[in-house]
């Protein structure tokens, strides 16, 4: 997908497999907290984009090959810190852990015109899950919190 080698996606539900494969994933693994065990030594990957956060980070660190990189960029697991973090135990030798939070400068530097052009021309697929009117913003937030959108949530004003 997009010049990458093997792209593996995870979801808490196998019902999302079609959605993920339709968006370029080669494999889908149900994330039950033991993705590394499902990948096994031979199935490890070079990079992991960790979107859930500290609740799954330790498992994600075990999913990468030596010299691999794990980038934590999301905290949708509703937990902001480890109860007890021991870097020498939790980060495997030769594995790099980094993070990306994205600030105002990053948003301003986003090539929005280029992204919109790619979506319009069909080169970038955006999965629209649910559309809400601004008066239904509470329902939109509930759909997000309950992971029931099936894609991006759009709120119309």
Q: Which structural class matches the secondary elements?
A: alpha/beta
Total helical segments: 7
Sequence of strands across the biggest β-sheet: 3-4-5
Q: Name the poorly predicted regions.
A: none
Order of helices and strands: EHEHEHEHEHHEHE
Determine the strand fraction and express it as a percent band: 15-25%
Total beta-strand segments: 7
Distance between the termini: 34 Å
Morphology call: globular
User: Can you give the mean pLDDT?
Assistant: 89
Which oligomeric form is depicted?
A: single chain
Rg over CA atoms, rounded to whole Å, is 17 Å
Task: Provide an overview of this structure.
This protein is α/β, with parallel strands linked by helices and 157 residues long. The chain is built from 7 helices and 7 strands. The protein has helices at residues 17-22, 35-39, 54-61, 87-90, 104-109, 112-120, 137-145; strands spanning 8-11, 27-30, 45-50, 64-72, 96-99, 128-133, 152-156. Strands 3-4-5 form a 3-stranded parallel beta sheet, with helices on one face. It has a two-stranded parallel sheet with strand order 1-2. The chain is globular and about 50 Å long. The model has no long low-confidence stretch (mean pLDDT 89).
Care to give the gist of this entry?
By secondary structure, the chain is of the alpha/beta class. Helices cover 30% and strands 24% of the residues. It is globular.
């Amino acid at each position: 997908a997009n010049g990458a080698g093997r792209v593996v996606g995870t979801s808490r539900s196998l019902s999302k497999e079609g959605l993920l494969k339709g968006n370029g994933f080669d494999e889908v693994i149900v994330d039950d907290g033991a993705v590394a065990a499902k990948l096994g030594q031979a199935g490890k990957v070079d990079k992991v984009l960790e979107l859930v956060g500290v609740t799954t980070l330790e498992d994600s660190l075990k999913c990468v090959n030596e010299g691999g990189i794990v980038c934590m960029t999301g905290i949708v697991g509703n937990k902001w810190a480890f109860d007890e973090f021991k870097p020498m135990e939790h980060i495997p030798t030769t594995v790099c852990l980094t993070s990306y939070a994205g600030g105002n400068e990053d948003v301003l530097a986003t090539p929005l015109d280029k992204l919109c052009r790619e979506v319009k021309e069909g080169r970038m697929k955006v999965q629209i899950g649910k559309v809400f009117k601004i008066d239904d913003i509470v329902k939109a937030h509930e759909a997000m919190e309950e992971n029931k959108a099936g894609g991006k949530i759009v709120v119309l004003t």
